[in-house]
Queue: 2 jobs
Job 1
Amino acid sequence: MPAALPSRFSPVVLALVVAACALVASGCRTAPDPADRPNVILIMADDMGQGDPSAYNDSSKIPTPHIDRLADEGIRFTDAHTPSSVCTPTRYGLLTGRYAWRTALKRGVLWGYSPALIDTQRTTIASLLNEQGYATAAVGKWHLGLGTEDSTDYSRPFQPSPVDYGFDMFFGIPASLDMEPYVYVDGDRVVQAPTDRVGRSEHRRQGGGGFWRAGPAAPGFAHVDVMPRTTDRAVDFINRQAAAAADRPFFLYLPFSAPHTPWLPTAPYADTSGAGYYGDFVAQVDGAVGRVLDALDQRGVAENTLVIFTSDNGAHWPEADIDAWGHDANNGWRGQKADIWEGGHRVPFVARWPGHVPPGAVSDETICLTDMMATLAAIVGADLDRDEGEDSYNVLPAMLQQPYDTPIREATVHHALDGMFAIRQGPWKLIEGRGSGGFTAPQRREVGPDEPAGQLYHLGRDPQETENLYDEHPEIVERLRTLLAAYREQGHSRPLP
């Protein structure tokens, strides 16, 4: 049973923790009957906004029939957030259930030659499920560092690599598709060493062929092939697991490299959207989702598979793109990728689990991608120790549309590219600082002597974050500031056992 919890946690949150603990015997992880454990596929797009899928935006200019199908057959969350408005820290938070700003990565992202960010002793959702008997795989974009050297050595096996974090296999690319080196990684080593070199390619916005940086590359590496090739490997894993181990559930983490730059839609998706190369690349992501769903249907395992689709942050889609294409990739939320405003971290999140998640459901519960660890632990009947998933809440009651009386999360912390913090509780959102903290100018704004030192918004009345109430509600500013400070100092934000 959990130890006594601080009084600020609601009785409902306490009840959820107690219920999770009741699923295990004597504090030890025990696997329930295999028939009760679903396969899990967690798909994460790279830089897709909440306004891209038609399920979220009736005015979307991008065809997304397969993501829409997931929403029709499952649940769509309207208030889902990434823990960061950029890539690496979100991936860390998703896999560990812990905010990445608790690590050495206080701002920005990793690069292709960065060392591993995740401690090999830390529990991930893959290691947790692997311990429960799951076959586990990661396919796509890693972007969490490789090895321990200051600059990763691609001439020898990596230690650690993705297979040191609970994944039985990994296939994909080291970082973003516009970051060197341009190679495929299979398990703990490259498929081919980066002995060639490619030149810089300019962004589509500037009339280029799709942005990437100059740097080392494997012979014959072609950026346009990454999405088809990784999708093939994901489908192969599904087919192999369904055929070879019907009594063993599987977990597939599928972090796509798209629609992040370079925008390189293949021929079947070219000119299929009304939002240029970006929209066509989103359509290709949707097509890849369709291939996954088709594989589940063809193998007869769709009924016992939980499929989740989300994104690692908002779209890199400034006002100029909205004006040029008449498409709002971030669904009317202020800002874009990297920003502390809602457009930076409010993302699509849909989940389908036949017979469990009611079809066509919509939830306005505030959730965060760090919550995947506690939620999956609850599904398989595993308990989390104090040093596991410190910022992860079990959102299964919201996903299953079970009754509950108060919000599941006490509060949610947001983090921008330059390290700016925000904390959200109920309708109130406090931002520590002025500016976007990200790509939208100004990133940081100097504060005058008679100006508010930060930003406070009531998202219920002002979802576009236009009216700064910082000076009007000092008591709310102080309450949220104190709670954020507590989260920083105590090393966790969820109630611990």
Note: The longest strand covers residues 250-259.
Job 2
Amino acid sequence: MPETTSQPVRQPGVCIPWEEKLKELPPLKGDAKLVQRVWEDTDSLAYTYIWQCLLSF
């Protein structure tokens, strides 16, 4: 039987999901929704950049 490795399922367009990144951060003292939005926007740009590099070469 083939071995299966359980890898986390990621949504398209996401490198590191917010829920995963939040575990690495200290407790947030400000607006958590703002931090989440900025993280998700930045992560989306990173994902797009990686794909662009892969498709360009």
Note: The CA atoms of residues 24 and 42 lie 16 Å apart.
